[in-house]
Amino acid sequence: MIAPHLPPLDAGLVVEHEQAHDAFAEALEHAPPVVGRLFVMLQRRLIVESIAYVQPVNSRIDQQVLTPAPRSFLTETHELRMEGANAVFRHLDGRAEMKRIGAIELVISSATPYVFHALLEGPAPSGIDMNPGMLRAYPFDWTPEENMFMHPPGRECPALVEGAMDLAMNAPAPACVRAAYLTFAMLSIHPFADGNGRTSRALYMAVAADGLRLGMDWGALEQWAVDRTGYIGALQAGQRVERYRGEDMNAAAFVEFGTKTSTYGAHLCRARLANMAERVAAVSEARGVDIRQATIVVAVQLYRVAARSQLAPLSVDADDLDGVLEGLISSGRLEWVLRPPSMRTRLVPDEHGLVDRG
Amino acid sequence: MNMVWSTEDDRRTMNDETVNDETVMLGVPPPAPEFPGIASIELLIADLDAAVALFCDVLGCGLLARGPAGLIAGEQAIIDVGTMTVTLLAAADSGEPVVLPDRTPRLASIELATSCAADTAVRCLRAMEAGLIVATGRRGEVVLPPEAIEGAIGWRVGIVLAAAHAGDGGSSGEL
Amino acid sequence: METPLVAIGIELVVADLDRAIELFTDVLGCDLLARGPAALIPGETATIDAGNIIISLLAPAASGEGTLLALRRPRLSQVIFGADPTALDRAMLRSAEHGLPVVSAAGRFHIPPEAIQGALGERIAIVVTGLGAEPPATGSGLDEG
C-alpha cells in the first residue's frame, strides 16, 4: 500500500492565498500591540474550538459573526477535547517560536502526528483509553450508515503515515497544498484508534505554518468548522472507492477546499482585526480611557463575562493587568458578577467574572 | 455589535476589497417577547404500534397523522395531547433518506412555538450570544442541535424554534 | 363525547440544575416559577413556565437522607396530563383494562416508568392528575428504590 499522491493546485489559488495571508500579516504587524493581542486572544479560542470540533457558534458560512460568543454548555467530553486542543495549540505556538529564533528549521517534524495525538487523547475525552501517541493495531470500520469507506489494516499504518509525512514535509509544492494534502491523507489512513480528525486538522496547522509569514494559519480551521458540510464533502470526493487504495484516491478537492477556506479565513481575520481596532478606538474615545483600558473593556465584551485568567493574554505583565483592572473596576466601568454555570469549565472554573457596565 | 458576512454566493470569491463593503451590522438582540409555549415534543420510540396504542387506546388522545418520517428513515405518528402535539418517531435501521445513527428511545426534541419569523430570529441571536450552536432548518426554523443541549441538561435533545404554523413538523431537532 | 386528557407538564431529569435553568430562562426566555428541594426524593427541583405547559427540572442527589432515586440518568421522566374527574376515572380504568399497573392517589394516578418502557422503550412515567387539584410532587412517578 502507498500513501495518496500529492495533487497539483491551480496557481491562481496559490497566489490568492499568499496575497490574503500577506495582507493580514501586514495588518497584524501594524496594529497597536494590545489590539494584536486582543485578536490573538479571540482567534486562538476559535482555533482551539475548531481543532477540538466542539461545533462553532458561527454556523452559517454566508452569515458569519465577527465576534462569536465563546461556546458554552460544553459537556465533559467537549471540555476534554478542548483541553487537548489547547495543549496542541501551545505546542504549535512553541514550535513556531523556536523556528523564528532559528532553533529548528520547520514547525512540522516526523514526530508531530504522535505528539499531537498524545496531547489530544491524553485527557481521554471519549472516556476510554485510546492509546495516546500510538498507531492502531486493529482494523477500523465505520458503521455502514455513517460511512462505507474502509480504512487500511493496522499493520499498514506505520508505512502509510511515513509516506504521507515524507510528501508533506519534502515535496516541492506550496505549504498550503502540502498541509491540506496531509489532512486528507491522514483522514483516509485513519491511523489512530480515535482522534484522527483532531490530529489531522492540527497537522494542517503545523505544515501550513512553514509557508506563512506569521508562522500560523489563523483562518482556515475556523472555516472548516463553520463549513462542516464542505469539509466532509471535499474529503469524501477523494475517497470514491470502497476501501483504502492510495493510488486510486485523489486529494485535489480537499486541497482546493483547504486553500480556499484558508484564503477566506485570512480575509475574515483581517476584517475581524479592523473591527477590533475600531471598537477599541471607539471605547477609548467615548469613555475617556487609554487604549490599554479600552482593549480590556472590549475583551470583556468579547467574552460576555470574562474570568481574570481569560484576560491574562492581553498583558505581558500580571501586575500591569491587575492595575488596569483595578482602575476600570473602581471607576465602575467593569464589575465582578457570578459567571453563568454554562461558562464554567475545567479550564476556566472561576465562579466570578467581569462584565462591562458601560 | 457583531458584523455578519453577506451572501452564500460571495462566500468563495470574497476578497479583501469586498469584505468591508459587503458586511452589514446587526444590533444586540432586543429582549425576547413573552414565551409563547411548546408546540410539540418528539419521542424516539422503539415500537410505533405500542406507543400509539398507549396514547390513543389507553390515554384516549387523538391520532392526528401517521406515516413515513419526513427527514429520516422510519415512521412517525403525531398525537394531539391538547396543549401541544407529541410526535412518536420510530427510526428505522435502514432505508432512505438517512438512517438516524442513535436510535435510543428518548425525548429527542422539543419544538417551541415562536410568534413570528422575527421572534424566531431574535431568539436565535440570544442563543448565539449565549454561546450555543445554532443551525437553520429547511422551513426557516432555528435548531439548537442535540450536541449543544447535551451540555445543558445532560442528554442529546434538540430544541427547535419555529413560528407557529411554520411548516410540516418533523424531526429536524435530531438532524 | 369523552373529554380528552390534556398534557400540562413534562418532567426532565437533568445532570446540572443550574445549567438547565440557565438554558430555559436566560437563553430561551421562559420564567422560573420556583426552585427548591424535591419533595419525595433527595435532590433539587425547578419549575419552568413554558407557556402552555410546565416543565419540571429534577436534579436527583446521589447521596443524602431519604430514598435515593435509583435511575438518575438524565432523560424525560414524566409526561403529566390533566383531566376532569370523569376523564381521570375513565383513563385509570382503561389503563388497568389494558393490563397496565396503575398507582392511584387522591385525585390522580400514574403508570410507573417500568410499565411505560414496554410501550415507548424508555422509562417515562405517565401521570394523570385532576384539573384543579394540586400538581403532583416532582419525582412522584419515578422509579422507587
Provide a concise account of the structure shown:
The complex is a heterotrimer of chains A (358), B (175) and C (145). Chain A is mainly alpha-helical and 358 residues long.
Q: Which of globular, elongated, flat, extended, rod-shaped describes the shape of chain A? A: globular
Structural class of chain A: mainly alpha
Q: Which CATH class of the largest domain in chain B applies here?
A: Alpha Beta
Distance between the termini of chain A: 63 Å
- Write the CATH architecture name of the largest domain in chain A: Orthogonal Bundle
Query: CATH homologous superfamily of the largest domain in chain A - what is it?
Result: Fido-like domain
Helix/strand class of chain B: alpha+beta
Helix content, binned percent of chain B = 10-25%
Average the pLDDT over all residues of chain B and give the rounded result: 77
Structure in words:
The complex is a heterotrimer of chains A (358), B (175) and C (145). Chain A is 56% helix and 3% strand. Chain A has 358 residues and is mainly α. A two-stranded antiparallel ribbon of chain A has the order 1-2. In chain A, helix 2 (33-52) packs parallel to helix 11 (291-303) and helix 6 packs across helix 10 (252-287). The model of chain A has no long low-confidence stretch (mean pLDDT 93). Chain B folds into two domains: 1-28, no CATH class; 38-163, 2,3-Dihydroxybiphenyl 1,2-Dioxygenase, domain 1, CATH 3.10.180.10. Chain B has an eight-stranded mixed β-sheet with strand order 4-5-6-3-7-10-9-8. Chain B has a two-stranded antiparallel sheet with strand order 1-2. Chain B starts with a strand and ends in a 12-residue tail after the last strand. With 145 residues, chain C is of the alpha+beta class. Chain C has helices spanning 17-27, 85-97, 113-120; strands at residues 6-13, 31-37, 43-49, 54-60, 75-83, 103-105, 108-111, 125-130. Chains in contact: A-B, A-C, B-C. The A-C interface holds A 73, 340-342 and C 16, 18-19, 22-23, 26.
